[in-house]
Amino acid sequence: MAIGEDKHRFVIIIDKELLNKFRQLAEKDNRSASNLAAKILTEYVEKNKD
After folding, report:
1. What is the spatial distance between Cα 5 and Cα 35, in angstroms, rounded to a whole number?
2. How far is residue 19's CA from residue 25's CA, in Å, rounded to a whole number?
3. Helices marked H in the chain — which ranges?
4. Angle ∠(26,32,22) on CA atoms, nearest 5
5. What is the pLDDT, as a whole number, of residue 1?
6. In the chain, where are the structural domains located?
7. Angle at 37 between CA 19 and CA 25, to 5 degrees
8. CB 34 within 8 Å of CB 45
9. Are 19 and 37 in contact (CB under 8 A)?
10. What are phi and psi of 15, to 5 degrees?
11. What is the tens place of the pLDDT at every residue in 1-50?
């Protein structure tokens, strides 16, 4: 799947244990880990935009 011109890939390095826990949380929310991370980042930026 191609990434649209208005999107950008963001790479982070985290512990495997943290990634596994994060994936479990995403699964409980019926999301992919990537989708959940994008949601969290969007909410954080909106909350702190001032």
Report:
1. 18
2. 10
3. 16-28, 33-47
4. 35
5. 63
6. 1-50
7. 55
8. no
9. no
10. -65, 150
11. 677 888 888 899 999 999 999 999 999 999 999 999 999 999 999 999 97
